Amino acid sequence: MKQLRVSRHRAYVVIAGLSDTDSALTLSITFFSLGYIYFLFCFQLKFSRETIRKEKKMKIRRQLQGQISKGDRVEVKRPNGAYYAATVLRFPSVTRKNTVFVEYEVINEGTKHVKEYVDLSNLRPLPPCEPNRCFVPGDSVDAHWENGWRKGVVKDILENSKYVVGFDGNGEKEEESEIEQCNLRLHREWDDGSWVPPFTELTQSSKEKDDKFRRVKVKIVFGKRAADAKLRKDDEVEVTREEEGFRGSWFSAVIVEYIRNDKYLVECTTLRTEDGMPFREEANACHIRPCPPELSPIASFHLREVVDAWYNDGWWVGVISGVLAGPKYAVYFSQTNEELEFDHSYLRIHQDWINGKWTIASEETSRQLLTNSNKLLHKMAVKEKRLKAKFPKGMKVEVKSDEYGFEGSWFSAVIVDSLGNDKYLVEYLMLKTEDQEALLREEAYASYIRPHPPHAEHAYPYQLLENVDAWYNDGWWIGQIVKVFTGWRYTVYFRTTNEELEFEHGDLRPHQEWINGKWVIASRFLPFKQPMAST
After folding, report:
1. 239: closest CA among 314, 295, 311?
2. Choices 1.10.287, 2.20.28, 2.30.30, 3.10.50: CATH for 466-521
3. Rounded to 10 degrees, what is the CA torsion of 166, 169, 172, 174?
4. Top CATH class, 301-387
């Protein structure tokens, strides 16, 4: 029989007929059951959240696969939640389906831009530019702050096109900062292959805001000379000239002062007057641009690629019309209808200053530069035909890699097909796909391909500082003998990776170069590494 007694301060439950031990056991079982049910509830909740998060990542990966290609400008989400501009250096391949190799534009290690593999779920296209967009308090925006785009909310409107933007303090006090209008954009999410909200449509609320602002009339009195100036004194820039013989060229300069009517006085840093003084001239704002950002050097340029060539103290826009040995290149200049030869070190990747942003030149730009010379187009077409004939289908070749950490290596492959535009589909003989079930296939430019070198016997020991190819990681790596051991063993130094490794005699071959359609034994001795004593 159960009895319940309730006092003013305490409640007691007395179970008649049960001992103290039985009561304690009953309570223990009850509390254990409740704890187990709570544990199952928490586990199911956590599992559901993880499942949703994984499904979202997979959805983003499926949307971007096939849309990203080499050279595309994108934004990458970092652990701090901000998005940073980057350029795709290597698009998703068979071996790395869900990652892309990118180079950041503003994140540096020392003097070089950071390069890394990023997951597709942290990648999105670069959103289109929306110049002169106005904002009101409460708008969700992305602010360019500390070199990245961070999500925030407009708190207040200031003078001189500035806004107060609040940022999430990660659980701490909210941060606020003054941001200029040019460093703000409306916050959007990349979802299901499109931007939300879309760029093509304005919501009703946005239209109402625009109408409201149009009804506001403001009269501002200020000094016209200072307001018109977009560039400041001592800004480093590049200036182009419209005179005959100088079109298509850019010269380094410094802003001396703003004159009037969108004109500046500039001082060229590489040009001199007859008496040796720095050359000064007036230049329109449309003929001035900021100095382009320094890009990481590339191993080689390709046929029809747009470049800037250093010539006569300036950078001249041209197109690669021939890939020569050396490495050297023939460059065609459409403005002067000339073709000149340049070393690799005198060329840089061409970039265009469009809508306040730097953009790497496209294939359309190269086509426009080439349309002025039918003779040159015919000459380049003949060269392309020769390149195609050089690597017929089924030919055994070696393919060079320019991927970070693999410079200076050649991998055996077979030509599968010619893709046109100086590209081939190759199948590697030693490299396999990620699942190890098939041989890896990739697209490669002709400048990265050479015939398989002839077999060269080396019945005598290699000598100190002799150049060799070493078989390592399923490929041939260019190196140099820096130490000779007894028993036909050697230490080889690799300049591209700054490493030294030990090899047997049978894992080495004499180094040869493919020059002008012929195999040439390279210079046996290049003293770029201090030799070590033989043992």
Report:
1. 314
2. 2.30.30
3. 0
4. mainly beta
The domain defined by 129-197 carries CATH number 2.30.30.140:
yes
Beta partners for 100? 118
Q: Is the dihedral of CA 270, 275, 277, 282 positive or negative?
A: negative
Q: pTM of the full predicted structure?
A: 0.35
The mean pLDDT of the chain is: 77
Written as six digits, the tokens of 523 are 């210079």
β-pairing, 439-445 with 489-494? unpaired
* Residue scoring higher pLDDT (343 or 56): 343
Q: Looking at domain 68-126, which CATH architecture does it have?
A: Roll (2.30)
Rounded CA separation 284/260 (Å): 10
Task: For residues 26 and 49, give the distance between their C-alpha atoms in angstroms, rounded to a whole number.
Answer: 35
Give the fold, CATH level 3, of 230-291.
SH3 type barrels. (2.30.30)
The type of residue at 117 is Y
Rounded to 5°, the CA angle 494-423-68 comes to 85
Q: What is the pLDDT of residues 58-76, one digit of tens each?
A: 554 545 555 667 778 889 9
Confidence check: pLDDT of 423 > 50 = yes
pLDDT in tens, 161-212: 788 998 876 656 678 888 888 888 999 988 877 888 887 544 444 444 444 4
Name the band, by pLDDT with cuts 50, 70 and 90, for residue 363. Answer: low
Beta strands 499-504 and 194-196 are unpaired
d(CA 489, CA 502): 7
Residue 434 predicted with pLDDT over 50: yes
Long-range contacts for 190-199 (Cβ within 8 Å, ≥24 apart)? 190/60, 190/124, 190/125, 192/59, 192/63, 193/63, 193/67, 195/127, 199/127, 199/128, 199/130
Burial environment of residue 446 by CB neighbours within 10 A (0 to 12, 13 to 18, 19 or more): buried
**pLDDT at res. 425:** 93
Residue 487 makes CB contacts below 8 A (sequence gap 6+) with none
Helix (H, G, I), strand (E, B) or coil at 66: coil
DSSP secondary structure code for residue 63 in this structure: H
